[in-house]
Amino acid sequence: MIESGSVAGIRLEKVTKRYRGGVVAVRDVDLTVEPGEFMVLVGPSGCGKSTLLRMIAGLEEVSSGQVLIGGRDVTDELPQQRDVAMVFQSYALYPRMTVKRNMAFGLRMRRTARVERERRVSEVAEILGLEHLLDRRPAALSGGQRQRVAMGRAIVREPQAFLMDEPLSNLDAKLRVTMRSQLSMLHQRLGTTTVYVTHDQVEAMTLGQRVAVLRDGVLQQCDTPQSLFHRPVNLFVAAFIGSPSMNFVRAVVSGGVVSFAGVRVSLPAGSPLAGADRAVILGIRPTGFSAQSGEGWPTLTIVPAIIEELGDERFVIFELDAPRVDTDETRAAVDAQSADDALLLPDERARFTVRLPSEVPVSAGEPLELAINPDRLYFFDPETGASL
Amino acid sequence: MKRRLRAWGPGLLLVSPSLLALGVFVYVFLGWNIRVSFTSWRGQKPVYDWVGARNYTELFGNERFQIDVRNLAVFTLVFIGGSLALGFCMALLLEKGVRGENFFRSVFLFPMAISFIATAIIWRWLLNNGSGSSTAGLNRLFANLGLEFLRSDWHKTPSTWAIAAIALPAGWALSGYVMALFLAGMRAVPEELREAARVDGATEPRVFWHVVRPLLLPVLMSAVVILAHISMKTFDLFYAIDQGNLRIDTPALYMWFTTFQPGFYARGATIATLLLFGIAVVIVPYIWYSIRSERRQ
Amino acid sequence: MSVTTDRVVVDEAVGAPARRRRPRWAPYLTTARYLALFLLACFFLMPVYALIITALKEPAQVSVVRMWELPTALSLENFRIVWPDLQEGFVNSTLLAIPASLISSMLGAANGFVLAKWRFPGADFAFPLILFGMFIPYQAILIPMYDTMQRAGLVGGLDGLILVHVIYGLPITTLIFRSYFASISDEVIEAAKVDGAGMLRTFLFVALPIAPPAFAVSMIWQFTSAWNDFLFGVLLASREYWPITVALNNIAGGQTVPFNQAMASALLASVPTLLVYVVLGRFFMRGLMAGALKG
Lengths: 388, 297, 295
Prior knowledge:
The complex is a heterotrimer of chains A (about 400), B (about 300) and C (about 300).
Chain A (H helix, E strand, L loop, with lengths): L9 E9 L5 E10 L4 E5 L6 H9 L6 E6 L2 E2 L10 E4 L11 H11 L4 H15 L14 H14 L4 E5 L7 H18 L2 E6 L2 H7 L2 E6 L2 E6 L1 H6 L4 H6 L6 E8 L2 E4 L2 E4 L10 E8 L4 E2 L8 E4 L1 E6 L3 E11 L4 H9 L12 E9 L10 E5 L4 E4 L8
Parallel strand pairs in A: 3-8, 3-9, 6-7, 7-8
Antiparallel strand pairs in A: 1-2, 1-4, 4-5, 9-10, 11-12, 11-14, 12-13, 14-21, 15-20, 16-20, 17-18, 18-19
Helix pairs in contact in A: 2-3, 2-4, 3-4
Chain B lengths: L1 H35 L17 H8 L1 H33 L5 H9 L6 H11 L10 H8 L22 H21 L3 H9 L4 H30 L2 H6 L9 H10 L4 H32 L1
Helix pairs in contact in B: 1-12, 3-7, 3-9, 4-7, 7-9, 8-9, 9-12, 11-12
Chain C lengths: L1 H13 L11 H31 L20 H41 L5 H13 L3 H13 L6 H25 L3 H9 L4 H9 L4 H17 L2 H6 L7 H9 L6 H21 L1 H11 L4
Helix pairs in contact in C: 2-12, 3-6, 3-9, 3-11, 3-12, 4-6, 6-9, 7-8, 9-13, 11-12
């Protein structure tokens, strides 16, 4: 049975990457990956997540701060001196080597005995279902097979940690979902510390035991998927996590009531904003609405503009009689995902998406009454974007 | 710092012998040669005195050098113009894909594989200027084909344009190269781009003019630069076609004859230095441009 | 021609303007194209025709005036006459061109790898400097080079000539390999690093196994230029070490040499490079492209 040589944690202390010319790709990141943990780094493109991963691998020099693997300071070590394995987006298989030699290469470089090498390669090949491909060259493999070989090459090494740089993004959508669950199973089985980079928040949420959200080289929040979803620390994280994205509108809180676009919602008991009197950005998830008004929830009458059918449910997009919230944070988060709803309704009014079960009859242009769940409201400071 | 040294140190170590060798054999020698051009070195024994720019002023007043420069200008003009036109036409003819393309391409390109010496030896017989019953070479061929009006004295004519005759073998040797460059450039134009233009209603000549031509400009530049530098430094072709014929003398030949026969080392070095600068003027911007466009990709 | 028909069908479906139809004179255009190609091919082959038929004529039959006429009988007599004089040059050029192309290709592979994938600070500065060495007029290094080689005792024999060919071959071989290695993805090199390979082992185990095509291009280019070189050979080699070009020029370059012998010698001297060209033309082509800095 393959097992990790030693389960090591990774610690980043005030890690900064500054390129020549002054561009800062990663700024003062403190992050601890517990031994055996599956940590996902997520953020829009250019947020520094790959740079951070490459600094852990040693492929990128650390400008300041420290990288510790298994308690040992490896900041000044070259990649070949660190005991980590990496899976690349392009898989980076050695073109002239067979699958077997690809997988054994790391062991060969580390002077593992030949017998041991063969044993480990065949064990891992069995786990990944690669036995019949061992003598093929990478060029003769399908995308999914290459992906598995890249994985196998990392596993064979039995390293202190796996580093994965968007390993699924070159697969087609269906295969990606399959591989995602296999990856989870593999991690449960091997228990190796894993740092996984992706720009896809769905992948992040489904894979990560904890997820670290980065933006512009700064760590925003690192928490479990549940916490990220329910307790985002700021507007950016709130907008980035969840699909479809959270809806935002400018609102005013006064006397325990939040009002926006002619709607008044009483704050739930014990809300920290109960006594406040101020402007806020209000966030409501697409699931924060309901077609039946229950338990005295406030209601809102809307006119659906676009209806997106998904089979057992549908997204209803409508406009709200309030100005659109268009801050750097929301823009950065939305650009990262497909900027799907950006252009179709190019008007200055806020646009909301609601997720409704398909039983609810809806048609575009027909007014519809929706109830708002007062327990599922998020409040952010309009100036700083911080969660309130 | 230590990490950096460990990261790239081995690479630098691996290339350093080559860098060193090229440093000496290219840059030290070039500098040394320039130094020699400021001496009065003549004869077998090296002399490293300093005579200032005397060699240069003397050379500019030297009648043979003046003829050489004029010859080189004529040759470069005819050679580049002819090879470009011929190479471009050949590429254009082949571009659409014709039957036997490989055959034609090979035929146009094989002279590149032959040494200039062998080329010269073949062509010196073809460029024969005998007349009457001793008409030979190309002139004979013209006569056989009823094309007597094409008869020429080639490089033996007293005209200033005598050296232009040498553009014939030179073009024979190198226009296939120009064709290969253009052909590669034309084929690198994405088919979608042409199709987009066709769907927009452009006729084939217009597709060529508006889509293909702009993308060929860098190729044209490469071809001109390469041909220009070859024309400046070529020595063996002229040497073997008609050694000592002053009508086809160029600075590259003069440098050889003045240096290694009577031993005018300083003058030879002066000519070589001028050649170097002549070539650097076209090559340095070209390298700079190539590197820059590579970096942009 | 099926491509053309397809295109017409597509265009009509899209409603392309009528002038897109093939003009009535199109067939004549195709004929003209082939005619032009044929005439051009004649121009390029004409010297070869003269060369071959003359070399194959009986010496007694040869006359410059009748050089275009086909021989009445074939004879290898001309080759037999000139071979003894060329033989030595042939051997010398072989002993010169093979090691020169091998060594400079190997060094070029190492340089190309480092400059493409294991860059050191200043690599961007060093590369254009190396490249410039490819274009210099050799006249501008001839005097110092001769002086240096003489002091080092490397004038006269083949060793000095090989050295010179290796060094002045480095720019082009470095360029060929650099362009080639640049096409390997950086991630493959990084994978090797993470797998524990240093520079040398990444080069040997990962980069070199991919490089045979680049080797072919570089070897052919170097072999051809060393074989065809005249300037270095005539300057540095003494009579018994003359490379083929120098020998050829001496035999066939004089005015008094019989025409048929000149042709037979030129043909013989060109056989190896022509053979390489015919057999490995594909790689030859790529070398040409590399020489234009086009990778």
